[in-house]
Structure formats: structure tokens, C-alpha cells
Amino acid sequence: MTQKHHPALAPMCFRKLKEVDPELGRVTGKFWATVWGTERALPPRYKYLIALGMALAAGRDRQATRELIKAYGAGATLDELRETFMLIPWNFGVSYFCSEVSTGTPMRALELIAELEGAGMTREAVVKQLKTRLKSQIGFEGE
């Protein structure tokens, strides 16, 4: 049995796809609902962690930050996020990590989570702070 899932950040591009072609928007929305909109074999936080790692590896800073926020919002722990970051230097090299990942918005988001959790903030409050502080970097429009 599948469960409905509501991410911490909803996809933004569907409106644009509908403008390009209504059928494309509908098909894409249905595809998203199949992959992300229900909990199937993998809990949402694991899917987001996988997506985070893939986005980091691809150098997609904005997407990686959004996936990190969604993973955290879905219950990923700080240790799980750190382990996901650890895979990048292992699989792509320390130099890639140092030049691309360590200086990017996803790393800043990870540091904010650690800082805010350390200050005793709740997960919900941390997610709200991430959306507020990183608004321009993640394209968050209040969805």
C-alpha cells in the first residue's frame, strides 16, 4: 500500500511545463506523482538523499540544496546528510568536493542545519529557516 507524500518544497517547473504544453505538464505531473508523490519501497527521505547525492555529483547546486531541504523535511538526520556528502569525495574525488561542493549552497544548508539543531530548534523551524535564508539560491516562492 502506498502513502501520499508532501515534500518540504514542491516542484516549481510544472507551471512552466503547462505553459509550454498542457499535455506535457499533465504527463510530467503524473510522472512526478508516481516517483515522488507516494511512498513505495523507499521512504521519501532515502529518495531525497539519493537525489541529493546525484545533484551534488552533477554540479546542480540549486537542485542539490532543494533535495537537501526536502530530505531533512522528510526526516533525514544530520548524520544521514553528512554521509551523503561523504560519498562525493569518495566517488568523485577530494578536489571536486573542495572546489565544487564545499563552497556551494548545499554545504551552507548542511552547516545551517547543524547550527540550528545545535541551538535546539525543531525540524519544522529549521526547514522554515532554510527556506527563508536560502530563498534566492533555491528559487523558493512560498509553495
What can you see in these coordinates?
With 143 residues, the chain is mainly alpha-helical. It has two domains: 12-41, no CATH class; 43-143, no CATH class. Helices cover 70% and strands 3% of the residues. The chain has helices at residues 14-20, 22-35, 44-57, 61-73, 78-92, 94-101, 105-118, 123-133, 135-138; strands spanning 3-4, 38-39. It has a two-stranded antiparallel sheet. The protein is globular and about 45 Å long.
Main attributes of the structure:
single chain, 143 residues, mainly alpha, 2 domains, two-stranded antiparallel ribbon, 9 helices, 2 strands, 3% strand, globular
Total number of helices: 9
Order of helices and strands: EHHEHHHHHHH
What characterizes the major β-sheet? Answer: 2 strands, antiparallel
Whole-number tally of structural domains: 2
User: How would you describe the shape?
Assistant: globular
User: Which segments are poorly predicted (pLDDT under 50) over 5 or more consecutive residues?
Assistant: none
Amino-to-carboxy terminus distance: 27 Å
Mean pLDDT: 88
Q: Which structural class is indicated by helix and strand composition?
A: mainly alpha
Taken as a percent bin, the fraction of beta residues is under 5%
